[in-house]
Write a structure and sequence with these properties.
Blueprint (H helix, E strand, L loop, with lengths): L1 H18 L4 H10 L15 H6 L29 H8 L4 E6 L4 E5 L3 E6 L2 E7 L2
Antiparallel strand pairs: 1-2, 2-3, 3-4
């Protein structure tokens, strides 16, 4: 007899516990009424192509004939990653130092036989000067 009571209690108890909970629809209605919480700042739109193109652009203009190519010979020295101080110690003071432009800042040092490009204070590229 005790076993039958225990089985009935086991079957009825979960039903009683569930009956006291609010209905699923009631739980979700409260959440819908609240304003959603933003976890990140809204992303601002990037500039359009028109905005980029209308800004003044400067640079060298190369006039090439169809099929003509430009050969750029990279030099072995100074090597990529070398600092401005080391380059100046090895090659001396450059003939021309162009002001830094862009972000990260790119600087160009011109020597008699080569042009050295720096990102911040490290060499990123070297080309032969003709």
């Amino acid at each position: 007899m005790v076993n039958k009571i225990m089985i009935l209690m086991g079957l009825l108890f979960p039903t009683i516990a569930m009956a006291e909970r609010p209905a699923m629809a009631e739980r979700f209605e409260a959440a819908v009424d609240e304003e959603p919480m933003l976890m990140f700042e809204p992303v601002q739109a990037e500039p359009t192509t028109e905005a980029i193109v209308t800004e003044p652009i400067s640079g060298d203009v190369l006039e090439l004939q169809p099929g003509e190519t430009i050969i750029i010979n990279p030099l072995d020295f100074p090597v990529r990653g070398m600092t401005m101080d080391k380059v100046q110690n090895e090659l001396g003071h450059p003939a021309e130092i162009a002001p830094s432009i862009g972000e990260p800042p790119i600087t160009r040092w011109t020597y008699a036989d080569r042009v050295v490009f720096f990102e911040r204070s490290q060499v990123i590229h070297v080309v032969e000067r003709r």
